[in-house]
Amino acid sequence: MDQNNPTPPKGPPDQKKPKSIWTTVLITVGILLLITTLYNFISNSRYTETTYSDFLSQKESGNLAEVEFQSDRIIYLTRDQAQLPASHRKACFTGLPRGDVMDMAAQLQDAGVKVTQLIEEDNSGIIMLLYYAGMFGLIFLLMRSISKRMSGDGMMGSVGGNKAKVYMEKKTGVTFKDVAGQDEAKESLQEIIDFLHNPQRYTDIGAKLPKGALLVGAPGTGKTLLAKAVAGEANVPFFSISGSDFVEMFVGVGASRVRSLFQQAAKVAPCIVFIDEIDAVGRSRDSRYGSHSEQEQTLNQLLGEIDGFDSSKGIVCLAATNRPEILDKALLRPGRFDRRIIVDRPNLQGRLDTLKVHTRKIKLAQDVDLKKLAQATAGAVGADLANLVNEAALRAVRQGRKAVIQEDLLVSFETVIAGTEKKHTVLSETEKRLVAYHEVGHALVAALEKRKDPVTKITIVPHTSGALGYTMYTPEEEKFLSTKDELLVELRTMLGGRAAEQVVFGVQTTGAANDLQRATDLAKKMVTIYGMSEKLGMMAPASVQHQYLEGNAYLDCSQETSALVDQEIQRILADSYEKARKTLADNRALLDEISEYLLVKETITGEELMAFVTPKNTEETEN
Ligand code: ADP
Ligand code: ZN
User: What is the mean pLDDT of residues 373-379?
Assistant: First the structure.
């Protein structure tokens, strides 16, 4: 997601001028040839061709009425034909013999034949030449103006075609100050900036300069922003293109776009070339992920360009991806994108900083507590937070306020995270009861189990995201480690929804699908990665492909082990479900009470929930 789309201040230098001139010339010549052939064809069809001896015999017998000498033929009209009305006349033509044409013309004139045109050989050549040159010039100009109009308003350079947009920004105006958090990434990029500032220092020592770095991270974490900031800090121009722009139907187009991108960059070096979504071109050439020859050509061209440019000139190529595992190994070899810079989802401090950056220009009311908001937004990326702040500002304007208040921020958080509240979705009364009990099931298990991240809100107001209701938890502090017990509590909480349905109504609904999915994922991780199952012990049969991207784990073990894994997952889930069910059954009165309250209020806070739970709890412990 890109909030502040760059408005390209100026198109890049028109690289393809020489090429397009030649194309235009070729097309012009083609058109001229076509016109000439057509002209000859038409003009020939107006006359019948005869032999020269025919012409001579007509001349001998005094049958000629008119004769026209052209540069390459004689056109003549017999007396019979001359008597017909002009539209019915049919003239004849024959080749022009070598020898003295002037003599023949004189003879004919003496014989009373009308000679319409005497041709002076030399002149006609020049006239023809001029004629063709004129035509050529005209068509050429026409073609130029057409092709110019087609290539747009000149704001964007077109690379090897009209479609790919290369944005060139002379000055990005973005610096590291605009990028909150991401300190490690910034540190890694610092060297590149240093190098762009002062290439000499590196070349003097004989150090090989970095050619490229790969920014790896989930969408919206600020990869583009970082690349721009590098250009801004180094004060060099910024070229950006998306990998998907290289992918074309026609073989060769992508490759030519790559070539011309680097040509443009070489002209203004030192500069940054940023390729977003490089996985679109750079995916592995082995057939596992499917590739085709166009993509392969483009990739080869890209590799060639990266190897080709002399890094002492100061072109640094940054690329972004969120799927580094599918990239072709060749791209990652030393001398290419050999540096990997991880752009992580922000932590609490990072989120707070991001919120601060984005609220710099926003009027905030006194009650705004960004820290609380940062706490509530665990898992959100920079783009989400930017979006959230903007939504809040829009909401403040809609409600006629002069400044953004905390409530605006909290409501927009829900809009961004859970989709806008969908007040008009009408649930039947039974459905509503089911949803209410389901949500309270989650919340009550969480509360009774003293979950680490307490419930902050329960609602049965449907959201556009499809959730009919949800329970929100907010961690009190950021957690990096979880114990097995905490994970088990989480499992029981997730399964609490389904358990409540079962305990109260004796039914199972589709509403629990997402809960079951997440619970199964968690149980799977406990067994295969965290070594938390009894039967497998410390064995971790799954390999995680890319840890920094909540990567997919795949099982790498014997069939027996894999069967055991399934059993263990099932057992953990069944145990947790049973415990959740028991907790709810034991506290049935509480479950009913809170659910009825939720049905009336539709949304209740964590405090309201705890008000129900706490007194009862103390009573129990007193007993
Ligand atoms: P990516 O390229 O990783 O998908 P972008 O760089 O396009 O993400 O980020 C989109 C927007 O999110 C940025 O324009 C910016 O407004 C906001 N953003 C993302 N990360 C940060 C950050 N660390 N600090 C400030 N703003 C950020
Ligand atoms: Zn649920």
Answer: 77
CB 343 within 8 A of CB 222: yes
- Pairing relationship of beta strands 238-242 and 165-169 according to DSSP bridges: antiparallel
Phi, psi of 316 (to 5 degrees): -120, 125
pLDDT, tens only, 286-301 = 544 444 667 777 888 8
The Å distance, Cα 316 to ligand 1 centre, comes to 21
pLDDT tens readout for residues 162-172: 444 566 777 77
- Quick check: CB of 228 below 6 Å from ligand 1? no
Q: Which residues of 189-205 are buried (b: 16+ CB within 10 A; e: fewer)?
A: beebbebbeebeebeee
439 is catalytic: yes
Please, which contacts does 596-603 make with residues 24 or more away whose CB atoms are closer than 8 Å?
A: 598/436, 598/439, 598/440, 598/458, 598/460, 599/432, 599/433, 599/436, 599/460, 602/459, 602/460, 602/461, 603/457, 603/458, 603/459, 603/460, 603/461
Catalytic residue among 169, 439, 449, 568: 439
Q: What is the pLDDT of residues 73-92, one digit of tens each?
A: 788 888 887 787 776 777 88
Q: In this structure, which residue's CA is closest to atom 18 in ligand 1?
A: 382
Least confident span in 30-39, 73-82, 540-549: 540-549
Pocket test for ligand 1, best of 167, 169, 175, 225 (most atoms within 8 A of CB): 225
As given in the structure block, the two tokens for residue 85 are 């009305």
* pLDDT of the residue at 8: 39
Residue 373 has pLDDT above 90, yes or no: no
Query: Residue 514 is which amino acid?
Result: N
Q: Which ligand is nearest to the CA of 215?
A: 1
Residues 6+ apart with CB under 8 A from 448: 583, 587, 613, 617
Full 3-state SS string of 362-399: CCECCCCCHHHHHHHCCCCCHHHHHHHHHHHHHHHHHC
Contact assessment for residue 46 and residue 91, using Cβ atoms and an 8 Å cutoff: yes
Q: For a pLDDT cut of 70, what percent of the chain falls above it?
A: 81
User: Is the distance from the beta carbon of residue 219 to the nearest atom of ligand 1 less than 6 Å?
Assistant: yes
| Predicted pLDDT of residue 267 | 85
User: Ligand 1 in contact with 57 (CB < 6 A)?
Assistant: no
